[in-house]
């Protein structure tokens, strides 16, 4: 009997199970198929920090949420329409996020008495009517997988490991996802273990066939491709986009890229990705610690390379002294901080925006650095190029503030044409620049206040380098009070004078009384919330800051144009503090530090409250 196909405009699916159940791989493969199909999408991986959290417990639950649609979307979605729960812990950990009427696909094989007791269930929720407000599909995923693989020479334990591929096949049938991409991926992933490849493919196809033949699913769903601007697209995560942006920056600056890094969650994938691209002249160095990583990157910058170091919050603290050295030597350096929840180790796999003040002030002395923050996973590509442009043009370290949500999340990205990328190349100094034929390493460009960039070994351009204060012009060691005052003010003026575009405001009618401003990864939830308010007839303006130091020149004027300014941040109000101090505007701060991105519905409620308040 032919099954009914129902058209939907969007779907939010969450895969959840033990951290060893392969939920991230399952979500990633479903995302790849969705991207290939042409939907707009946004993802939210969420997993424990422990390498192997206790099996079957709430702290051990790993999940992957995917929002896909036939139109432009901005977030991974507030609440899933479908939850795939591989065990009782996955169900209990995620049930609170499920709206009434949502679908639950539960792996009944794991709802044993022991597993139920681990998470505090006295009876199975699949049998006691406690889930009557949801549509429950009880599927023995594990035993069906083992049955499908009984002709393979695999142990029962090895066969059970493929249950995530069975679930992926079932969901692929349910939402009409293409299968060729997943089959090809499995063949490549297990090319050296063909029997394992065949087993996983068989499990995937068995899941598809189960959906096609079982009476448990009488309806399948179709979400048509989204209408995107013309071009070639691929699905990309923030860390991948940032790595590709750094490669593009190397090409566009005509400088070899050197990455000095120490692995740290959630920044490590940038090191992994860049290490694959030696053909572009990329050199990657996995240092013994954070300090060695940034030191090597600064040394590479001194030698004429585009020096980059990647880290997260704890690593920024360790790198602070060397970043200060880069400030005083005035060499280009990109410091990528993929922020995570702190302090200290904190919650290393969870997202946060709590490093802004550390990026702004976390060094001794007066040592300002530019700060750039991408607003989406794909925007990490452009933000990396912008950070490189500022670094090489103004001879300064630049902080690039991504975060865990952007790093691990993904979305469609239109590959840019090479002609669309900016030329950010700068000339090295080749000749002496003093009136008497000497080289003055701190003689500044009159427009940018940048000092010359002279490569070691260039005849006649030998000069002193180090952390002690330099004399203006000559670069000699100087303890003169007036010279120090001049150099401190000049370095500050150089950063303040960086050319950044004006702050753009989205205010369709120009008569909104409330402005919602944000920075970094809050863009998607804020924009989605603003859309909701406008659809309901409300008037609200939105602005988003990419450059946090220096701020756009018109920032103060924009803030004072509105009766009320709301600033949501995943911290306790760091940017709000800076804006209040600089512009004397009573910014309304809305803050959450839960290790999760904002929900659009949550922010829409906050915005409406601000609009309604007198």
Strand percent estimate: 15-25%
Low-confidence stretches: none
Number of helices: 20
Structural class: alpha/beta
Percentage of residues in helical conformation: 25-40%
Return the average pLDDT rounded to an integer: 96
Please state the CA-atom Rg, rounded to the nearest Å. 27 Å
N→C terminal distance: 61 Å
Largest sheet: 7 strands, mixed
Strand count? 22
* Strand order, largest beta sheet: 11-10-12-13-15-14-20
Shape: globular
Features of the shown structure:
alpha/beta, 20 helices, Pyruvate:ferred/Flavod_OxRd, 22 strands, 19% strand, globular, 2-oxoacid:acceptor oxidoreductase subunit alpha, 7-stranded mixed sheet, 614 residues, Pyrv_flavodox_OxRed_cen, 2-oxoacid/accept_OxRdtase_asu
3D structure, described in words:
It is a single chain. The chain has 614 residues and is an alpha/beta fold. The protein contains 20 helices and 22 strands. The model has no long low-confidence stretch (mean pLDDT 96).
Would you summarize the structure shown here?
InterPro entries: 2-oxoacid/accept_OxRdtase_asu, Pyruvate:ferred/Flavod_OxRd, Pyrv/ketoisovalerate_OxRed_cat, Pyrv_Fd/Flavodoxin_OxRdtase_N, Pyrv_flavodox_OxRed_cen, THDP-binding, Transketo_C/PFOR_II. By secondary structure, the protein is an alpha/beta fold.
Secondary-structure map with pairings?
Elements: E1 4-8, E2 10-18, H1 23-37, E3 40-46, E4 61-69, E5 82-85, H2 88-94, E6 103-107, H3 113-118, E7 135-139, H4 141-148, H5 156-160, H6 163-174, H7 180-189, H8 194-213, E8 219-223, E9 233-237, H9 238-253, E10 257-261, H10 268-274, E11 283-286, H11 290-302, E12 306-311, H12 313-329, E13 333-339, H13 356-361, E14 371-372, H14 379-394, E15 397-403, H15 404-408, E16 410-414, H16 481-496, E17 505-506, E18 514-519, H17 523-535, E19 541-545, E20 547-549, H18 555-560, E21 564-569, H19 574-583, E22 588-591, H20 600-612
Parallel strand pairs: 1-8, 2-5, 5-6, 6-7, 10-11, 10-12, 12-13, 13-15, 14-15, 18-19, 18-21, 21-22
Antiparallel strand pairs: 2-4, 3-4, 9-16, 14-20, 17-19
């Amino acid at each position: 009997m032919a099954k009914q196909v129902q058209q939907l405009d969007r779907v939010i699916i969450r895969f959840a199970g033990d951290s060893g159940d392969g939920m991230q791989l399952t979500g990633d493969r479903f995302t790849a198929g969705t991207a290939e199909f042409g939907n707009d999408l946004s993802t939210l991986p969420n997993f424990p920090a422990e390498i192997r959290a206790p099996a079957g417990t709430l702290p051990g639950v790993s999940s992957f949420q995917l929002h896909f649609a036939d139109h432009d979307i901005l977030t991974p979605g507030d609440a899933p329409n479908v939850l795939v729960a591989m065990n009782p812990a996955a169900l209990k950990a995620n049930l609170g996020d499920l709206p009434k009427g949502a679908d639950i696909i539960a792996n009944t094989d794991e709802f044993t008495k022991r597993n139920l007791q681990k998470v505090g269930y006295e009876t199975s929720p699949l049998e006691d009517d406690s889930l009557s407000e949801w549509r429950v599909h009880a599927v023995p995923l594990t035993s069906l997988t083992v049955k499908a693989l009984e002709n393979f020479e695999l142990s029962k334990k090895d066969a059970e490991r493929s249950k995530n591929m069975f679930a992926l096949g079932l969901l692929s049938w349910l939402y009409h996802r293409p299968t060729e991409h997943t089959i090809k991926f499995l063949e490549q992933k297990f090319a050296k273990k063909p029997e394992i490849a065949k087993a996983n493919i068989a499990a995937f196809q068995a899941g598809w066939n189960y959906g096609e033949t079982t009476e448990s699913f009488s309806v399948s769903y179709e979400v048509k491709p989204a209408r995107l601007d013309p071009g070639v697209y691929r699905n990309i995560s923030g860390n991948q986009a940032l790595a590709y942006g750094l490669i593009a920056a190397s090409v566009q600056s005509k400088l070899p890229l050197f990455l000095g890094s120490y692995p740290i969650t959630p920044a490590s994938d940038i090191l992994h990705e860049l290490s694959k691209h030696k053909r572009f002249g990329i050199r990657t160095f996995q240092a013994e610690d954070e300090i060695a990583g940034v030191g090597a990157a600064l040394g590479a910058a001194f030698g004429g390379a585009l020096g980059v170091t990647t880290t997260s919050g704890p690593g920024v603290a360790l790198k602070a002294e060397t970043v200060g050295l880069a400030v005083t030597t005035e060499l280009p350096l990109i410091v990528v901080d993929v922020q995570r929840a702190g302090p200290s180790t904190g919650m290393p796999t969870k997202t946060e925006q709590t490093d802004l003040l550390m990026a702004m002030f976390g060094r001794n002395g007066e040592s300002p650095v530019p700060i750039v923050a991408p607003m989406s996973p794909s925007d990490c590509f452009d933000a990396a190029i912008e950070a490189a442009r500022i670094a090489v043009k103004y001879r300064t370290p630049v902080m690039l503030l991504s975060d865990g949500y952007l790093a691990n999340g993904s979305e469609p990205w239109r590959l840019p044409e090479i002609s669309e990328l900016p030329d950010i190349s700068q000339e090295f100094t080749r000749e002496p620049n003093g009136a008497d034929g000497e080289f003055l390493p701190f003689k500044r460009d009159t427009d940018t206040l940048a000092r010359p960039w002279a490569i070691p070994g260039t005849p006649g351009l030998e000069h002193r380098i180090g952390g002690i204060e330099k004399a203006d012009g000559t670069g000699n060691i100087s303890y003169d009070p007036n010279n120090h005052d001049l150099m401190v003010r000049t370095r500050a003026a150089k950063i303040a004078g960086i050319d950044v575009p004006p702050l753009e405001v989205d205010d369709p009618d120009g008569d909104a009384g409330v402005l919602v401003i944000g920075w970094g990864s809050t863009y998607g939830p804020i924009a989605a919330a603003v859309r909701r308010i406008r659809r309901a007839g409300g008037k609200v303006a939105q602005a988003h800051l990419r450059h946090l130091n220096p701020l756009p020149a018109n920032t103060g004027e924009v803030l004072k144009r509105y009766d009320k300014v709301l600033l949501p941040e995943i911290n306790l109000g760091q940017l709000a503090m800076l804006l209040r101090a600089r512009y004397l505007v009573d910014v309304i701060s809305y803050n959450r530090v839960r290790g999760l991105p904002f929900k659009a519905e949550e922010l829409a409620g906050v915005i409406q409250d601000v609009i309604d308040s007198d």
